[in-house]
């Protein structure tokens, strides 16, 4: 669908209508702003969706309306993916939301079904759909599997933390010239990875580097985000929601009303220099005045072992019992593209 083309109707059933278009309805942005994610366990809310929505490279928005009123939305964001052995078009599913007053009617599933069907009808193969779904969201996973999606990787959630971060004197913001070099460095660093997309490297001028004698020796994309938490499971969840915010020392790591942290992607460090990673990440926290940074990482990623190293700090670590599946529906792609054990590259722009 060309960027200039207006919304087109792709589904109608009585008063229910679904349209597809390149521009998001302002009512859909309002819906996303008040959407709380999660049904059991953790329930949370994103912020700053409007800015990120307008920074999507090639989005296709789907709007569900009932009697003319918007009650649901979904987005498939198109991009080129480097799968290691082949490049292909990928459609990343995000921003699924249904008005709370209309939940429980299967409208989320209907939106995804119609969106996938529409793209299949209007896109030449090969291509693929993919999304990240938390392992505890069994219902969404089951629905996706019925629609032909399969899990090709499992992600783990990692938090890097410092109580009083300090900034290294080698630390700086990447320049425009640096970013050109970084793209080449990242292609080499992540050569064996699948689902590579470096389109958000340098987003909002937030790629940072360590330099020695003018040479880039380490780098990372770090985007500050703010989430609001409404519910955490279990006894520990109750403590986090009700007691931790009362203590200033612990509130710097978790404040449910306004939890501020950085999300990470595009790690790079010179071969044989993994010691640069904690220095770089601590400098990022000091730069932003934050105390936590998060990344989603494939459990097969060789970086997992480095993130577990004592130099990352006793406050850092992987979240227990939190797993996210990479669910994929390939169209016209050979099976061997997905049979490989190569790790998946994860862009923080896609999940935060």
UniProtKB/TrEMBL annotation:
The keyword Methyltransferase does not apply. InterPro entries: Acyl_CoA_acyltransferase, GNAT_dom. It comes from Spirosoma agri. This is GNAT family N-acetyltransferase. One of its GO terms (molecular function) is acyltransferase activity, transferring groups other than amino-acyl groups. The lineage of its organism: Bacteria, Pseudomonadati, Bacteroidota, Cytophagia, Cytophagales. The keyword ATP-binding does not apply. Pfam families: Acetyltransf_1 (PF00583). Residues 19-170 form the N-acetyltransferase domain. Keywords: Transferase. Transmembrane segments: none annotated.
